[in-house]
UniProtKB/TrEMBL annotation:
Entries under SMART domains matching the protein: HATPase_c, TPR
Entry annotated with the keyword rRNA processing: no
Catalysed reactions, as listed in the record: ATP + protein L-histidine = ADP + protein N-phospho-L-histidine
Segments forming domain Histidine kinase: 432-623
Pfam family membership, one: HATPase_c
Signal peptide: 1-19
Residue stretches spanning the membrane: 383-402
Broadest EC class assigned to this enzyme: transferase
Protein name: histidine kinase
PANTHER family, A to Z: ETHYLENE RESPONSE SENSOR PROTEIN, TWO-COMPONENT SYSTEM SENSOR PROTEIN
Amino acid sequence: MKRLLLFVVLACVSWSSLPQTPSKTKEDTLKNSDREAIPGVEDTLQQYKNFKKTIQLSQKNKDFQTLGEAYIGLAKWHEDHTVLDSSIVYLKKAISVYEKQKMTKQLADTYLLLVMNYSGTAEYDKGSEAVYKALALYEKTGDQRGIGQCYTKICDLLYYSDSYAEGAEYCQKAIAIQEKNGYEEDLALSYRRLAENQLFLGNLDESLASMNTAINTYKKMGETGPPLLACYNGRGNIYKYMERYEEAIADYNRCYEGAKAIGLERYMMPPTANIGHVYILQGKYAEALPYNLRAIEIMKRLGNTKNLWENYMHVSNIYSELGDYKNALEYHELYEQGHTEYLNTIIARKDSELQVKYETAQKDMEIMDKEAKIAQQRKTQTLYIVLAGMLAIILFGMFFTLRNIRKKRKALATLNAELDAKNKQNELLLKEIHHRVKNNLEMVKSLIALQSAKLEDGASKEAMLASQNRVQSMGIIHQKLYQGENLGSIEMKNYFMNLSEGILDTFNAEEKVKIECAMDNLNLDVDTAVPIGLIVNELLTNALKYAFPEGEKGKINISLKQENERLFLKVSDNGIGKTKDSKPQGTGFGTQLIQLLTQQLNGTITEEHINGTTVFFNFKNFKIA
């Protein structure tokens, strides 16, 4: 009840008010991937190259089993380096291979890995879609272990949607399967997830018993790594809300020291935040502050930000209690922004569930229609036997059927109207999100400009200026999205013109250099437009910095076109070019960024240095909107 009251108060809070300390928060539970492992290869770059080489050989030899495993290995490599977006990309590549080859077991297992990554990036709607795809495959093959693992993961996703009772039910279903078949490792995780949901249902004694069962199971198996550490953190949460604070801090320290010993920094973050929360509950705000600030710093650095908004709320409360209202307001604003994004993920997941229910209803209607046709055929057969007696029954049946059809049409029209209204609301919400993102990027650009104004070192100023241009490149994309009719596509010619104007203005080169876009209108998906926009931004910046020295005038040409299944980008200038033995200028970061973005789009780069510099790109992985 306290937690519900807190969220009602926070929803109504104004600029002059600050959030209150909740009785429970989800940062209490350690929610990282359950597939944690310490990389065994010291040279991780060589490990990355080995995976790439394996992929090339597997594609050449059409060894699809090894190809899928290599993609998963590369995804795990990125996960270990906290680059979850790239990890998701490679898992999707593995899924594509397994789908084409109809490798059902491998496909289902990979969907479960994808769920873990989506959970790490707080994309719970996408995680929900993936886990139900995995469950359908396991049910099709009768894989009881896979079914149990899916139930546990659904329990976890429901926990983040505040559906604790439903989540506990799925965990109990998983436990029944795992106890029956002796899947001890899976059983321990299910008891842990069950305990987490029971905690927020207020069943503290039951929650403690479930968590102790999980801990004892892991100890019996000889587990000493992340799964056991997560349980210590979870048991600390339970002790905390039992007001057994010393036992809670002892368990948090077990988790922290164990993670520190094996070098898993992201497992050091939850107990750090939770120790701060214990001090908050005890009213020891000055002692709590460094722990919560440390937890925020770790979350930002590792990119695991799904519970970041709750820590912002804690720090805002602490500063308020300490009388530092300026910092309290600053962290309160960060909390509101993060909490809004969290609620948006919940809304998206609910929309996904509604779509599934709607499609199920459509299938049920089709089944009912077929059953009605069968019944009609039987009635027709009976009509030939009993003409007079069955005539009245047939007429009555027809009348009843027509009335039901009218009711169903009316209900379907009402449902369609509701869905149309919901779609319009979602479109407005998406435009507002793009608008806010664009405004936030403008603020970031302004902050970078303010910071660079205080710098005296030329190299640092150039780096800050390059950062401004990159932020501006992404900001223009979000501006085009909320201003356009299609929320998922960017018209690239107009985008390049806007980007060029901004960069010319940044370098005060409007009168010196002319930028032309010799291309037809071309609409690209936002996932393709963003990396291409950043590539063009880097090339234009390099040309303005190095191609036209000492105030020389010149021209830059940009073209982008699609031919067959390829996308071709060309950026050329008539500047001084580059000699064969000339040394690279600048830090080289822009060149590395261009290469990484080109690799992301499965592209190639070639250069010419005749009458200036011309850079050609050939992309294979792109989406036309």
